[in-house]
TrEMBL record:
GO terms for molecular function: structural constituent of muscle. The keyword rRNA-binding does not apply. It comes from Paramormyrops kingsleyae. Pfam families: fn3, I-set. This is Titin. The lineage of its organism: Eukaryota, Metazoa, Chordata, Craniata, Vertebrata. One of its GO terms (cellular component) is M band. Residues 41-134, 140-235, 241-337, 410-504, 706-800, 803-896, 995-1088, 1094-1188, 1192-1232 form the Fibronectin type-III domain. InterPro entries: FN3_dom, FN3_sf, Ig-like_dom, Ig-like_dom_sf, Ig-like_fold, Ig_I-set, Ig_sub, Ig_sub2. Keywords: Immunoglobulin domain, Repeat. The keyword Repeat applies. It comes from the Eukaryota. One of its GO terms (biological process) is sarcomere organization.
Length: 1232
């Protein structure tokens, strides 16, 4: 036996026992392992990466680990000026550690200790180290230049510092100072790594100096010396050359060019451009533009020689001077170009346009062509209506229709034509219309108002002025349509926010596109110039001619102006009405002037000298132009002096005829002669000696008089035939042709149908069916256009209607027959006035009119029972009668049985609450059917608000002051011996909705309550728009709105006060208003669960001198909410203060407590936490000392046995846990 007393580390190792005797030798080896704390770590303790506030420690593990692996290391530091060591970390698991949060300039010593299960090793100390950076701040940079100066920016460039201080430069800081200031301000927000920086946001004409500082890891270095002062202003110089100079068009005498702005304007605004030109073979440049230059980027050079080649160049100029020149590539020559018309129709327009009734249509089509093509719009190959506005631009045309209705549906065709060709395209327009009888306008205050009616009467038109608004208040509006049945449409889209304030809109005008050209009108006609005007406020309108304002109303001119329209009427135009008219609109938004040029075609003025006719003989013929003065001078002789008498063979002399007679001559004078002064003038001389006569044939050369016997014949639904005879006076020249014109009755201006009619008749086709027109015809000779003959009464383009549709027998009795028929397939363009019912009795060939009616049904009475009759129907309009439509088979008058039939227009009727509703159900049946009514399957009883009235042919049900009690399905049943007929009729009362139902509380927390409900059983006859939710604290009587726009049947009410009791109520809202509410009982804002109970008493599962492992069980009661975690507290035996061990919530039921001091006794307690909060603490655990547990003793051996005892021998534990005294306890087991 070998015994080691007070073993030390050096006693460990391998021991060999050698046994020897005569029989041999035996060797046994024993490994002795001394369990101890580890040896000191292997040095040295290196310190690297030293900066002002951190360093890195590294070391080697101890050579001897004490028989147990090293679990971690403890690192401590000490300032050399102090004696106390401070723990840096007590859980380092590697041989390196970065120490941070040190103080710059302080001197430190560090030490490291290894730890295993048996203790802590001796420390390994480091050398002293001073915390400072191994590098310094960089030097100052050098500013090199300040360039690219503008009025608000400069570019600063600098050279890096001569020294970087031992660390790479990470950026630069640029600062500026105004000469008039005293403070340096930083220019860059982020670090600049380049050596140039653009300084912006400078004040124009201010002077600045700059300095730059470099920065590295040690910090910001010294700044550079300030730069000189630089003034922020834009340098100015001549502009650069214009860009992309090129020819865009040529004619035989002009070239059009265009160009772009110069890339650089020289720092001064471009004031204009100069264009120069020279012939290709010359070098002499000629300026085409004014010396001041052009303001625009294009120019047309005129008065050039056709096909001559030219060089062209352009330059820009500013305040500094004229810039560089830019020439077009090559040469250009004037030559005429032609292009056929082309138009570009958008793909969306090809699909067609669908617009709701009342909307607007805008068809904008760009085009091109050379020369500019003529534009023609038509609808369904006919002329456009007056409401269609056509606008023509240089390269586009637009068709506009406002306030569309079903009559605007059709195919709109655009045709472009010039001498190079023609092209056409069409756009289909479909107007969605309904038989609307009125509208309801609603408004809503923004932001949270509700929709209310603005119109309390039925609005017929598609516009309405809403009054009673508050100035500067925001509103939005919508419109609801209503038809004859009282059914309302869905509301239109809202207008969006509109502020009630006076709107200013500059004047605008919409005129006929032909006003842009010269308006040509014949003398004697009436000139009408009209325009639609727009603007807010309504603009003032003035008309002027040749710069002089026209008086409102004179015998010659008349001005008619309304809010939206103005018209100038010039009556009986003559050559004095030639000139320039101007329409001027003005309001506070501006002024708009429209020039209009008018040319009047009139005969020339009279010759300057008087016309004298002498030497008249018996066969003298005089010819002269209209407008002159006719003088017939005749010398006379006789004794006694004869009496002189002038006569006109075709009629009497006019009032303007003057006769002067002397003893020797007579003169007949007519001033301003016209076509009616033509004829044979007879001069008669008479005295006692006899009578002498002579005549002069006068022929006035003038335009013809009006054609004669003008009539309209052969009127169809889209055409008429005009007939006339030649004028009485042809104006002294052959009539070459006639001009035929038409005018709609609602318009004042005629439009030409043809200008070259050579016959005395003309057929005008493609007229609007049902349209009312005036027609006129004028003859034309070489002297001009003659007087017009016009229809006295308007002509309606229509014809007799087509025959009625299918004729049916509705009822037959022994003395009457009831017939019905369908409308004619076409009414001939004129409304059908009535229908004639004709009857023919068997055996007779004569048809007699039995009755006339305006409807589609008639009863012929007074017939003889048993006779056979034939019937036919004739439609009549103002143009005549249609062909008759006969009933297919004869009818024999006799009584027959008929199964009841009903004729209902609608199966559902609606009525506003409080209004009366009457539903009439026409019926037939023979014998007369019995009528009964039911509501929702139960017999209907008459009350003070529901009355029933049944007649021979109908049954009426009337509702007085309709309420929601009247809503339901009403069934009418007709029964007779021939059968039974039943029909259901739905009645909807349009009213506010009922109250929501089944209001319940879904979720309650300390700050929110979630509610849900069911929609009202009665929705008021329309959809529920939204719900309004209100709340109130039960300690007050004031209700607060939670939300007025809840779209669903649930809401989460947040931001409640914990512990307060609330009451809620919910309203349903539809288009007719807010219904009654449903109210909840009082609800307290708090969680429905309680705090958790205390956990079980904590147990210390494992104890060492450095930590303790504490466990516990969950609480028996979790308060109704799952436990979220635990809080653990510890108290030292000699202290009264409990210390919380966890920073975060402990999710498990165990926790490792560190930071215990060896030998001290500790106790623990635990709290559980759920969503309601932290519950009560558990009972306190037993006191437990912080020390390592001792190792078990060695294996016991039996040294002596008696009948009553056993002697045992064992070795001490390898580690006694630090106790001086050991106590042992033996346990035994008895075997039987």
């Amino acid at each position: 036996m070998i015994v080691f007393k007070d073993t030390i580390t050096a006693d460990g190792g391998q021991y060999t026992l050698l046994l020897t005797n005569l029989a041999g030798t035996k060797t046994i080896s024993y490994n002795v392992k001394v369990l101890d704390r580890p040896a000191q770590c292997e040095g040295p303790l290196n310190i690297t990466g030293v900066t002002a506030e951190k360093c890195v420690l590294s070391w080697h593990p101890p050579q001897y680990d004490g028989g147990s692996s090293v679990t971690h290391y403890i690192i401590e530091r000490r300032e050399t000026s102090r004696l106390a060591w401070t723990v840096v970390t007590n859980n380092c698991t590697v041989n390196m550690f970065k120490v941070t949060k040190l103080l710059e300039g302080n001197e430190y010593i560090f030490r490291v200790m290894a730890v295993n299960r048996y203790g802590i090793s001796e420390p390994l100390d480091s050398a002293q180290v001073i915390m400072k950076n191994p590098f310094v701040t960089p030097g100052s940079p050098h500013i090199l230049e300040v360039s690219n100066i503008t009025r608000d920016s400069m570019t600063v460039c600098w050279a890096p510092p001569d020294t970087d201080g031992g660390s790479e430069i990470i950026g630069y800081i640029i600062e500026k100072k105004d000469r008039s200031g005293i403070r340096w301000t930083r220019c860059n927000r982020q670090k600049v790594t380049d050596v140039c920086f653009r300084v912006t946001c400078l004040a124009e004409d201010h002077e600045y100096e700059f300095k730059v500082s470099a920065e590295n890891a040690a910090g910001l270095g010294e700044p550079s010396l300030p730069s000189a002062y630089y003034k922020a202003y834009d340098p100015k110089f001549k502009p650069g050359p214009p860009t992309h100079v090129h020819v865009i068009d040529t004619t035989k005498s002009s070239i059009s060019i265009t160009w772009g702005k110069p890339v650089h304007d020289g720092g001064s605004a471009i004031q204009g451009y100069i264009v120069e030109i020279c012939k290709a073979e010359n070098e002499e440049w000629i300026m085409c533009t004014p010396p001041t230059g052009l303001r625009v980027n294009k120019f047309e050079i005129h008065k050039l020689i056709e096909n001559q080649e030219y060089n062209i160049r352009v330059c820009a100029m500013n305040k500094i001077g004229v810039g560089e020149l830019a020439a077009i590539p090559g040469t250009a020559k004037p030559e005429e170009k032609t292009e056929g018309p082309e138009l570009s129709l958008d793909s969306e327009l090809r699909k067609g346009i669908v617009v709701r009734a009342g909307g607007s249509v805008r068809i904008n089509i760009p085009f091109r062509g050379r020369p500019s093509p003529d534009i023609g719009w038509s609808k369904d190959e006919a002329e456009l209506s007056d409401k269609v506005l056509i606008e023509k631009g240089l390269n586009y045309t637009q068709l506009s229709i406002d306030g569309c209705d079903r009559n605007d549906t059709g195919k709109y065709t655009l045709k472009l034509e010039n001498k190079s060709g023609s092209v056409s395209e069409f756009v289909s327009v479909k107007v969605l219309d309904t038989p609307v009888t009125g509208y309801i306008v609603e408004k809503r205050d923004l932001p949270e108002g509700r929709w209310v009616k603005s119109s309390f009467t039925n609005v017929i038109e598609t516009e309405f002025t809403v009054s009673g608004l508050t100035q500067d208040q925001k509103y939005e509006f919508r419109v609801i349509a209503r038809n004859a049945a009282g059914i309302f449409s869905e509301p239109s889209e809202s207008t969006g926010p509109i502020t009630a304030t006076d709107e200013v809109e500059p004047p605008r005008v919409s005129i006929d596109p032909q006003y842009k050209d010269v308006i040509v009108i014949n003398a004697g006609e009436t000139l009408v110039l009209d325009a639609d005007i727009y603007g807010k406020p309504v603009p003032d309108v003035t008309w002027a001619k040749d710069g002089k304002e026209i008086e409102k109303n004179t015998a010659k001119m008349e001005v008619k102006t309304t809010v939206k329209h103005t018209m100038l009427v010039v009556k009986d135009c003559n050559r004095n009405d030639n000139g320039h008219f101007e329409l001027t609109l003005s309001n506070i938004g501006g002024t708009k002037t429209i020039p209009i040029t008018v040319k009047v075609l009139d005969r020339p003025g009279p010759p300057s000298g008087p016309l004298q006719v002498t030497d008249v003989t018996a066969n003298t013929f005089v010819s002269m132009r209209a407008g002159g003065t006719l003088r017939l001078f005749v010398t006379i002789r006789g004794r006694p002096v004869p009496n002189v008498k002038w006569e006109k063979e075709e009629g009497s002399l006019t009032e303007k005829t003057q006769v002067e007679t002397t003893n020797s001559y007579t003169i007949l004078t007519i001033d301003n002669v016209n076509r009616f002064d033509s004829g044979k003038y007879v001069l008669t001389l008479e005295n006692n000696s006899g009578t002498k006569s002579a005549f002069v044939s006068v022929r006035i050369l003038d335009s013809p008089s009006a054609p004669l016997n003008f009539v309209v014949k052969d009127i169809t639904r889209d055409s008429v035939t005009l007939l006339w005879e030649q004028p009485l006076t042809d104006g002294g020249a052959k009539i070459t042709n006639y001009i035929v014109e038409k005018r709609e009755s609602v318009r004042k201006a005629y439009t030409a149908v043809t200008n070259n009619c050579t016959q005395n008749m003309f057929v005008i086709s493609e007229l609007q069916e049902g349209g009312i027109y005036y027609f006129r015809v004028r003859a034309v000779n070489e002297h001009g256009i003659g007087l017009a003959v016009e229809t006295k009464d308007p002509v309606k383009v229509a014809q007799a209607p087509m025959p009625p549709g299918k004729v049916s027998v509705v009822d037959v009795t022994r003395n009457s027959v009831t017939l019905s028929w369908e409308k004619p397939s076409h009414d001939g363009g004129s409304k059908v006035i009535c229908y004639n019912v004709e009857i023919q009795t068997k055996g007779s060939d004569k048809w007699n009119v039995s009755t006339t009616t305006k409807g589609l049904e008639a009863t012929v009475t007074g017939l003889t029972s048993g006779e056979q009759h034939s019937f036919r129907i004739i439609a009549v309009n103002e143009k005549g009668k249609s062909e008759p439509k006969e009933l297919g088979v004869p009818v024999i008058t006799k009584d027959i049985q008929m199964e009841p039939t009903l004729n209902l227009l609608f199966t559902t009727y609606s009525v506003n609450a409080g209004k009366d509703l009457t539903i009439e159900v026409p019926f037939r049946g023979r014998p007369k059917p019995a009528v009964s009514w039911k509501k929702d399957g139960l017999p209907l009883r008459q009350t003070s608000s529901i009355t029933l009235l049944t007649s021979e042919a109908s049954s009426k049900i009337s509702f007085k002051e309709a309420t929601r009690d009247h809503v339901g399905k009403y069934e009418i049943t007709l029964a007779n011996t021939a059968g039974t007929k039943s029909v259901e009729i739905g009645v909807v009362v349009l009213d506010k909705p009922g109250s929501p139902t089944a209001l319940k509380v879904d979720t309650v927390t300390s700050e929110s309550i979630t509610l849900s409900w069911n929609p009202p059983e009665y929705d008021g006859g329309c959809n529920i728009n939204n719900y309004i939710v209100e709340k109130r604290d039960t300690i007050t009587t004031v209700w607060e709105t939670v939300s007025s726009a809840v779209a669903r049947t649930s809401i989460k009410v947040s931001r409640l006060t914990h512990g307060s009791e609330y009451q809620f109520r919910v309203y349903a809202v539809n288009r007719y208003g807010k219904g009654p509410f449903v109210e909840s009982s009082g609800i307290t804002a708090q969680y429905q669960f309680k705090l958790p109970g205390p956990p079980a008493t904590p147990q210390i599962a494992h104890v060492t001198k450095a930590f303790m492992f504490v466990t516990w069980n969950e609480p028996v009661n979790d308060g109704g909410s799952p436990v979220l975690g635990y809080h653990l507290e510890r108290r030292e035996r000699s202290s009264v203060l409990w210390i919380k061990m966890n920073r975060r919530l402990i999710k498990d039921t165990e926790f490792k407590v560190t930071g215990t001091e060896e030998g001290l006794f500790y106790e623990y307690r635990v709290y559980a936490e759920n969503i309601a909060g932290i519950g009560k603490c558990s009972k306190t655990s037993e006191l437990v000392a912080a020390r390592d547990p001792c190792d078990p003793p060695g294996k016991p051996t039996i040294t002596n046995i008696t009948k009553t005892s056993v002697s045992l021998l064992w070795t001490k534990p390898e580690y006694d846990g630090g106790d001086i005294e050991l106590k042992f306890t033996s346990k035994w087991i008895a075997f039987i």
